[in-house]
Every structure is written in C-alpha cells, then in structure tokens.
C-alpha cells in the first residue's frame, strides 16, 4: 500500500472549464536509516535521517558506504511518479560536472548554483519499485528565511540571489531547457563552509525543452508551474526562456515584501483568471508596478520587468544586460556582494521608505548608478573581446543543433537514445502520468501555500504589524558579514523576539498555535503559560538548556537549543482588575526571555528529534496601558 495517496489531475478547473479526471498519486514507502542503495554505477549509498518531503517524494541524507559524513541527499519516489523521472533525465543530460566547471571557467564564476547528479537507480521498498537520485546536500531553502522575515528579504540579498539565478538560468538555457519553477522553496543555500554565500536552484521536475519555433499553446501543459509565478507563456503550455525570466520577476516582487495582485485578489484557484491578471499586468507593467510600490518602484525591478515585457517568446535573453541592471545598482549603493547572504531585515524596513525609493530620489546616487552601468558596460565589452579571442561565439548557446531544434514533448524526453538509464521500461501510460502528475502537483502547490499565508495574514491583522503590502522596501546597505548560517538563523529568531517586544499589546496578546504530536503531553508551567514538555524534561528548571524540535508557525523548523529564563515583571494590574479578570500574581509575569539557538548539525552527536513544541503567550497576561484591560 502506498503510504499516502493524493488525488492528481483534478481540482483545478481552468477558469471554470471542465475538471480533469482524478487519478491517484503515490507517496514513497519509508526507507529505513542505514539501508544501502546500489546505484546504476554500482556505488553504494547509505541512507541517513530524512530531511524533508517534497510534493511527492522524500529526501534523505546519504553518504557513500565507507564515508562518515552525510554530504549527499537521496530523493526517492515511487517508480511511476512523473516528476522524479523528468528530473533524473534532466540531470543525466545536462548537468555533467565537466559542463558546470567549463561554464564557471568561461564566466569567471567561483560557484554556479546548479546541482549535479551523483547517481541514480531503482530500489524495491516494501515490494514497491522506487526510483532514486543522489544529489549534493545543501542547506536551508530561501522560503524558510523569507517566511521567518514576515515574507520579505533584504533588497541586497534579493539582488544577489537574482544574480546567481541568472547564471543558473544561462547554464540551463544553454542546453535547450527551461527550469519553469523558480521560487524561494526551490532555492537552497549551500552547505558547510562558504555555503551561506551561494544559492542553488533545485527541483527540475518541470524542466523541459524551450520553444524556438512556432508558439503552439498546449492544452496538456497549460498552467504548469507554481500558479503564483507561472509565466504567461506557461499558462498557455509553452515553455520559453522569457517565461523563466517572468517567473523570476514575480518572485523578485514578492521577495521585496509586496503581494502579487493575483495573490491579493485571492484568485489562485482559477488559473485562467490568474493568467488574465498577468496579461493585464505585463501589458502595462510600469503603471502596475507603481500600484504595488506606492512609494516608488525600485528602479531595478522596473527595468527588469520592462525588459521582460518587451521580450518576444523566442528571444534569447540578454543575460548580461539583466545582470547589469542589478550589478550596477549594488555597485551604486556600494553594497558588499561577497560573503554570506544576509537575511536579517533592518528595523527601518518595517516603517521607513524603501532603499530604492530613497535612492531614486537621490540625484547623486542616480548618477552613481549611471556611472556604474557605464563601467559595467565597458567591462562587458572588454570581457567579450577577451572571450572572443578564444571562442567564436561565447555568449551563444552551445547546445547541439539536434537538441535545439527539438520541441519539448514527453516523446522527445523518452526517445533520446544517448541516455544511460537504469534499464527502466516506461509504458505509454507511464509517460502520460509523468506529465500529468507534475502538472497536477504544481497546480496544487498554491493550495499548500495558502493556509500559511492565511495564518500569516490573520496574525498580521491581529497584531497590527505593517502588512507586507505596505512595506515597499527591504534592507539598507548590508555591511560585510562574517556570521555563520546557524548564527544567522539564531539572529533571525532574536530579531523577531525584538520586534515582538516593540509591538503593541495586541501583538503580545496574539496567541500562537501549538502543534503537538499525539504521544507528547504538554503541561502549563506554574507561571505564565509557557509550556514545557514534562516527559522529556521532567524536572524543568529555569536557566537550563533543553534541546527540542521547535516549529514556529513562521516556518522555522529546526532542532534548537532553548534556554528558558523567566523574569518577574512588576505587577501593573490593579488588585480590583486582577480580581475581576481572574488574573493574579502568578499570571502577571508575562515576559519570557527565551534564547533560541540552532543545535549543532553534527549527525553523530545529535539528540533525537522531538515532536513539535511551541511557546504560548496568554491573552490574560498583558494589560492595555489605557483601558487597563488585559
Ligand atoms: N539537495 C538538497 N539538499 C538539502 N535539502 C534539499 C535538497 N533538495 C531538496 N531539499 C529539500 O527537500 C524538500 C523537497 O525538495 P524538492 O522541492 O526537490 O522536492 P519536490 O518533491 O520536487 O517538491 P515540490 O513539491 O516543491 O515540487 C525541500 O524542503 C528542500 O528544501
């Protein structure tokens, strides 16, 4: 029996059109830690702890049989699931380590944010055939950090990620493919030393050949992608490079803390409506951007989106021009573009004007941008001269003509004889499944996201925090950063604690939701309403450090060390009121100083993961300064 079965191919009625018929979609069987997988090259991989589940598969850490460090991941799905099949074939054809290294050399890059596959194969788990691929292990995905920041990233960080993703795009497009699903959840930070500086674009389950010939809408692929970001071309079922750029544009807008119009209008369940909204948006992009950024559209965003809006469907993107849009801005504001990416928002972000706005109105900085643009242009032409001498067409794709001429169809994917598959035979119905399932999966993904957004919106409404909609900027200039990723995650947590302190009483009164596993009983502590897991820490003591698995509903999911300290605060509630409201001394100590830091990632010394624990704040604790009401 499959562990979980999901309905596939239903649910989304394209703009009120006929619903597609339902199919069942399987989740993989659980693989036990320590299991050895043999790939097609006879390399043995040992399964470590699971690090997450995607839409339809599970990701485990892994190491080579004789090694100790779990530096790899295994992505495993039932054999007849489509996305992993597509992803594996994409990796097999296009991401050879030698190609990645050549591209890095050619572009003078220290790193390139595309993974390479280390192995693949098939395995029987509980008598069910599964497919697996082995990839390098990366760090946190950007979406977690985005959500921890109340759906906003520092502007400089956004542009640095964009620059890295433009490199990744250029590499992917060079082989005749588009990624078609760029989003924060598919961008991972690196792992280990220097990992915080580089991001990697993962999940190639939707990768396909792009169109260079006729623009033929394909009903079978219409609306493929993650609905918020799906490009206008993808809405018509046509994979294009301009589509990839458009997807990136929508993400940039969102990362800067602005809600996309079709998200705001809550029409994500109607793909055709979303498609129309995007057509209208892109037809008048400067005006539409003004509505989203009332305090001034960041010039980078305006230039990039205008560039995308004027592209033809079969245009080869001008990667260098786009890079320069962001590079010149970063240069003009003298931003540091090396070192770890900074995910900490400056406090000014919550209330002040945008950096971009400030810059826009500042003639001197404008002049600086121009100067930087000019410099970069000159440098570019110099670079081209240098490359020209060694390569006849360095900036042109070097894909084989055979590939470049092929339109993306499942038949193309399957009939390619160059591949070195693990002797799998895929039937015609499997092929249909491959594409149908991924399509459904992506169409469904907005459904997965919306509860989180709803929860966040509720919290924002409850807490009177400035909504991301009103927030039109990200951070000020970033100073050089030498922090490690774990320190950064810790500082994120403390920033949010800081922010909480400064919020209105309504914020402090906001009640967090507790998610508990059934076999863990939580009991309120004597004072306040912090709850401690008595079964794991029977003699709870202040000043002690406990390691727990901590899931904030802003999606920071990690094993963390929580150092609990409680400080008594002077009682500010009168006895009468106290009596009337039922409050007493015991409940008048609302401030909990909780220090959270990420536990060491050392797999061998890691304490066992415990179920979800969340700290609660009681409504009764805080007194409104004017009314005296709690
Ligand atoms: N190489 C990797 N190293 C570390 N974590 C990874 C790696 N690849 C994926 N993950 C994590 O595993 C989870 C799922 O990954 P992925 O998106 O590839 O799966 P999927 O089944 O295609 O999911 P989706 O529903 O987003 O399409 C994500 O949380 C991601 O952060």
From TrEMBL:
It comes from the Eukaryota. Residues 597-606 have a biased composition (Basic and acidic residues). Residues 380-425, 568-630 are annotated as: Disordered. One of its GO terms (molecular function) is ATP binding. Residues 401-410, 572-581 have a biased composition (Polar residues). Residues 416-425 have a biased composition (Acidic residues). InterPro entries: CK1_Ser-Thr_kinase, Kinase-like_dom_sf, Prot_kinase_dom, Protein_kinase_ATP_BS, Ser/Thr_kinase_AS. Residues 45-330 form the Protein kinase domain. Its EC number is 2.7.11.1. SUPFAM superfamilies: Protein kinase-like (PK-like) (SSF56112). It holds the Pfam family Pkinase. Keywords: ATP-binding, Nucleotide-binding. The keyword Disulfide bond does not apply. ATP binds at residue 75. This is non-specific serine/threonine protein kinase. It comes from Glossina brevipalpis.
